[in-house]
Amino acid sequence: MDDPVIELSNVSFSYDGVPVVQNASFTVAQKEFLAIIGPNGGGKSTLVKLMLGLLKPDAGRIRVLGKRPKKVSHCFGYVPQDVSINRSFPISVLDVVLMGRLRRHKGVRIRQQDYEAACHFLELLGVAQYKERRIDDLSGGQRERVFIARALTTDPDILILDEPTASVDTAGRTELYALLRDLNRTKTIIVVSHDLMVMSSYVTAVACVNQQVYYHDKNEITNEMLDMGYQCPVELIAHGQPHRILKTHEEGP
Ligand SMILES: Nc1ncnc2c1ncn2[C@@H]1O[C@H](COP(=O)(O)OP(=O)(O)OP(=O)(O)O)[C@@H](O)[C@H]1O
Known about the structure:
Its EC number is 3.6.3.-. One of its GO terms (molecular function) is ATP hydrolysis activity. About 35% of the residues are buried. This protein has 6 helices and 11 strands. The protein is globular. By secondary structure, it is of the alpha/beta class. Strand 8 and strand 9 (about 210-215) form a beta hairpin. It has a domain at about 85-155. Helix 2 runs parallel beside helix 4 (about 140-150) and helix 3 (about 110-125) packs across helix 4. The protein binds adenosine-5'-triphosphate (ATP). Adenosine-5'-triphosphate binds next to helix 1.
C-alpha cells in the first residue's frame, strides 16, 4: 500500500489556552476524497490550517508526504473559507488566478506559460468569460470557482477547499463535485463543510470534527458522528438529486 499523504498523530491545538483540536490521529491516503464535517466552531478550519502548516500543534505530530507541512507547502492547493476581497482594489479575475503562479523568491514576472495555465483553469472552472472583469463584480459562486482555479494553477497533489459550496446553488454544487471527482483521479481532495447536505457521493472518507476527530474511511455518516453533534436527517447529493443516506432517528419521548 502507498504511504499516506497526510498523517496526524495525537495532535492537539488551542487558541489562547482554549482547546479546539484534541488528540487527533488519522491518516489521509493517496487520492482519497475526504470530507471534513462537523458543527460550527467544531474546529474544521483549524484542523485544515494545522495540516497546511499555517498553525503549529501544541502537541502531537503532523507529516505531509513524510515531511513537516511547511516543507511541502508547494504540494497544496488551498481555497480558504470566505476569501476576503478589498472592494476598492481593482484586480481582475485573470490577475487573481495569476497570483497562484507567483513563485516564492522569484519576483512577479508573469511568463507566457503562467497566462496559459491561468486561462486553462479558468476555462476548466467555467469562468473564462469573466477573466477581464473585476473580481468584485462576480457573484459568490462565480468567485468561488475563480479561487479554485487559482488553487489549481500550480498543479498541486493535494487540494483543500474550505466550505466551497457555501454560495453555490444546488446545480452548481453538483457540477462542482463532478469536477472534484475528475480532479480526484490524480489528486487527493479534502473538502470542509459544516453542511451535511452538500456531502457528495464521490467522497471516500469522512472526518467528523467537534474538538475530537472521528475518522471513517467510508462514504457514510455513522452514529458516532451524529453523537458528536448532529441532528438527523442527513442527505447526500448524488447525480443532482439529494437523497437520504441515514434514517431519521426515532423521535425522543
Ligand atoms: N484566530 C483565532 N483565535 C481565537 N479563537 C479562534 C481563532 N480561530 C478560530 N477560533 C475559535 O476556534 C473554534 C474553532 O474554529 P474553526 O474556525 O476551526 O471552526 P469550524 O469548525 O471551521 O467552524 P465553522 O463551521 O463555523 O466554519 C471556534 O470556537 C472559534 O471561535
